[in-house]
Design a protein that fits this description.
The complex is a heterodimer of chains A (220) and B (240). Chain A is flat, with a radius of gyration of 22 Å. Chain A has 220 residues and is mainly alpha-helical. In chain A, helix 1 packs across helix 8. The longest helix of chain A is centred in the N-terminal third of the chain and has 45 residues. The chains are: A mainly alpha (220), B alpha/beta (240). Chains A and B meet through helix 5 and helix 6 of A and strand 6, helix 3 and helix 5 of B. The complex binds adenosine-5'-triphosphate and magnesium ion. Adenosine-5'-triphosphate binds next to strand 2 and helix 1 of chain B.
Chain lengths: 220, 240
């Protein structure tokens, strides 16, 4: 007996390609947000460290808001209210903006911890050699503090990559959204979600492995 | 020459240096002794501008360390400093530790900087440790690494802040030996130390600090043989 359904159809090889493309979009939005967010976060972390009470009154509460309000609420709010102030951003750009700020708010405390991990005598020794404040930051604090908090940063990066799934609520077709589309069509949630999960794993596993190997190298 | 005029240093309301007057000539080795908290470390920090001062001044080869227009990073190249804690940069090999500042501060080429570094490491007896990371070095070796790192900037003066205090007793000797070698080579040195033997044998003069005041200064024979101040006598009676 011939299947009579035309609207629903089974999982086909081209669907794998569809998911693959979506995975690339997940990667793309994550790479952008994590890299820009990290640079901003390091700057915020430095401000938190150096700014003392002035930073505690200005930057810190703003970062706290982004850290504590659920990402999905930030995304929806930003996407719907940005046009009011004249910002017409597509779902992708809105996602990048919010994920970047979110990453920055998380990285800021990691970065501050990194700076604090380099104790004062070490920095005095660097300065006593004639290094400027910035040379000390660049050649002493960054590598030493950076290594100290690298595992925490990797945690943030992997978390943001998974959280990028939330951008799907804006209609951006990344991995999760693509899975939902296919599930609706094929009615095979178990299969599709397993494949999507495998894609997420394929994106993060190399990062964790690479991070682990770096940490091993630094440990000696 | 290092000239210190009426130097006062406060930490908040704590008066830590109470009017220090002291000149150190080129080629001289001065040891600074005194009880914990008497302001010895603070004096060194004021000399190379790591701590600001509230009154008086420090002049190094004619340059006022704390004056507004002074390029402090340039001046510090003349003032090598070795701390109680060795502070080797843990992410760099011994050679890279020593080569870093010549490269980034003095703008030497990578090859030149490594050349200087290798030379200084040999100088302090670490010629066979060039590519070793600090974590694989003993405290004494790390402290000699710190000396080489300071020497690589070709300073005119070396400031030692209890360079041997944090070391296990059996490692003290090698560091003192290195300091003694520098003294014999004619390096101008100010050594804050608890090693009375070193102070007696190596220094041209010894200064005794007591509660932020330089109580007494003179040749080692005077300080150890015939101390003039009552506080000096008490201090020395206790350390012996
Ligand atoms: N950064 C600082 N802030 C506040 N007080 C300080 C600071 N550094 C030093 N002091 C205080 O200044 C006084 C002198 O300290 P300093 O470290 O110069 O003494 P010291 O003679 O080197 O003693 P030690 O033999 O223990 O090294 C001490 O009372 C110390 O507590
Ligand atoms: Mg001290």
């Amino acid at each position: 007996m011939e299947p009579t359904i035309s609207f629903f159809s089974g999982f086909a090889p081209k669907d794998l390609l569809f998911l693959g493309e979506a995975a690339v979009r997940t990667m793309w939005i994550s790479v952008l947000s994590i890299s820009i967010g990290t640079v901003l976060g390091v700057i915020f972390g430095w401000i938190l460290y150096e700014g003392k009470w002035a930073a505690a009154l200005t930057v810190a509460p703003i970062l706290d808001v982004f850290r504590s309000v659920p990402l999905i609420i930030q995304l929806v709010l930003f996407y719907n209210f940005a046009p009011i102030i004249g910002l017409n951003l597509d779902p992708f750009a809105s996602g990048v903006v919010i994920l970047t700020i979110y990453t920055a708010s998380l990285v800021a405390s990691v970065a501050r911890g990194g700076i604090e991990a380099v104790d004062a005598p070490m920095r005095r020794a660097a300065r006593s050699l004639g290094m400027s404040y910035w040379q000390d930051l660049r050649y002493v604090v960054l590598p030493i503090g950076g290594r100290a908090v690298f595992p925490a940063w990797v945690g943030v990066a992997l978390g943001v990559m998974k959280d990028s799934a939330l951008v799907s609520v804006l209609g951006y077709v990344e991995l999760l959204k693509a899975s939902q589309i296919l599930i609706t069509r094929t009615q095979e949630p178990f299969l599709i979600l397993s494949i999507a999960g495998a894609f997420y794993f394929a994106l993060s596993y190399p990062i964790s492995r690479y991070a682990a190997s770096l940490e091993r190298k630094w440990a000696q | 020459m290092i000239e210190i005029h009426d130097l006062h240093k406060y930490f908040g309301s704590l008066h830590v240096l109470k009017g220090i007057d002291l000149n150190v000539e080129k080629g001289e080795v001065l040891s600074v002794i005194g009880a914990s908290g008497s302001g010895k470390s603070t004096l060194l920090y004021c000399i190379n501008g790591l701590e600001p001062v509230q009154q008086g001044k420090v002049v190094v080869d004619g340059t006022d360390v704390h004056a507004k227009g002074t390029d402090i990073n340039k001046l510090r190249q003349q003032l090598g400093m070795v701390f109680q804690q060795w502070n080797s940069f843990p992410h760099l090999t011994a050679l890279e530790n020593v080569a870093l500042a010549p490269k980034i501060v003095k703008g030497k080429s990578k090859a030149e900087a490594r050349e200087i570094a290798a030379q200084q490491l040999k100088h302090v007896g670490l010629g066979d440790k060039l590519d070793v990371y600090p974590s694989a070095l003993s405290g004494g070796q790390q402290q000699r690494l710190a000396i080489a790192r300071a020497l690589a900037m070709e300073p005119e003066y070396m400031l030692f802040d209890e360079a041997t205090s944090a070391l296990d007793p059996e490692l003290v000797g090698e560091v003192l030996e290195t300091m003694r070698m520098l003294a014999e080579e004619g390096m101008t040195m100010i050594c804050v130390t608890h090693e009375m033997g070193f102070a007696r044998d190596v220094s041209d003069r010894v200064a005794f600090f007591h509660q932020g005041v330089m109580e007494e200064i003179g040749p080692p024979e005077q300080i150890f043989g015939n101390p003039q101040s009552e506080h000096t006598q008490k201090f020395l009676a206790n350390v012996r």
